[in-house]
Design brief:
4 helices, membrane, transmembrane helix, transmembrane
Length: about 130
């Protein structure tokens, strides 16, 4: 099974991250950098939420080894596993968006700095 074989519900959180990231390009740089910095820890928190849900005790009575085998077989369709899978996909998307944001912001910062240096040099050479 690949990522593309997953049902649409697993892709909601990553899609929301991408939509929010695109909309933030018309917001302030500070908002973009906060989003880029906080999105990966937020996705990791979703993964931890899935782990907590996965490790939560079930309401079924415990018994012998057959209960354990039933529980292991049910892991694929459990809510905790679904939350963890959505969190892992969101983490991959969040890391990619963070890298893109930091590369673009660094490039823009260098270009602004070079432009300011050129303007300062031109102003210093201009006759008074």
């Amino acid at each position: 099974m690949t990522f593309l074989d997953l049902p649409w519900g697993f892709w909601v959180l990553p899609a929301l991250l991408v939509v929010a990231w695109v909309r933030l390009w018309w917001a302030s740089r500070r908002a973009r950098l906060w989003f880029a910095g906080l999105t990966p820890p937020g996705a990791f928190a979703v993964i931890l939420l899935g782990v907590v849900e996965l490790s939560a005790p079930t309401s079924q009575p415990s018994g012998g080894s057959e209960d354990l085998s039933v529980r292991i077989a049910a892991l694929d369709s459990s809510t905790g596993m679904m939350i963890m899978t959505a969190g892992w996909i969101a983490l991959i998307v969040a890391i990619a968006l963070t890298i893109i944001t930091f590369v673009v912001e660094t490039t823009l910062m260098v270009r602004r700095s070079e432009k300011a240096e050129r303007e300062a040099a031109a102003a210093a050479q201009a006759p008074n």
